[in-house]
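Listing S7. Sequence submitted for prediction.
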Amino acid sequence: MFYEKSGGGVTLSGGECLAQDIDYLVELCRLLREEGVHVAADTCGAAPRAHLERLLPFVNLWLYDIKAADETTHRALTGAPNGAILENLAYLAEHGAHINVRMPIVEPVNSGDDDIIAAAEVIKSHAGLCPVSLLPYHTTGNGKYARLGRAAPAGAFAVPPAQTMEHLRDLLRERGFLQVEIGG
């Protein structure tokens, strides 16, 4: 039923799909494209530019994660800078890629007005007024800690309230982003 409603397609995901064997991904996407199958790539953009260049002709939609606009915050959260991620986002936009920016929203890490305003400016300067999906943090993965024999972090992150998500959506809309959804 989902396939029939959506028209179907294949989404490359992971972990990070662009960390996989790029020759395999290019060939897979080429064959899918030849068959008329819609291809989406779910990525954070932390990959060599050459990987994006090779996949660009075969990917219909880039689901592109932006976790934090500020490099210091991004590095603190992920252990890596976001410069190359933002440069890759700009590259895709400059080459006419269809991009949907996805922003995981974690209370209190990146759920403040300043966080979303900074993200809006970064997205606008690198990819224009593309669609944005605000993804509220969830605790679904907490069960994995027990299976790994580890303790879940106590209270470090929280699910943002619906009112916060709606407010952040409104802030993006006020900055010109007309296609903003919560979830997705």
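Caption to Listing S7: primary sequence and predicted structure tokens for the chain studied. Residues 33 and 58 are 6 Å apart (CA to CA). The helical segments are 2-6, 22-34, 49-55, 71-78, 83-94, 113-127, 142-147, 162-174.
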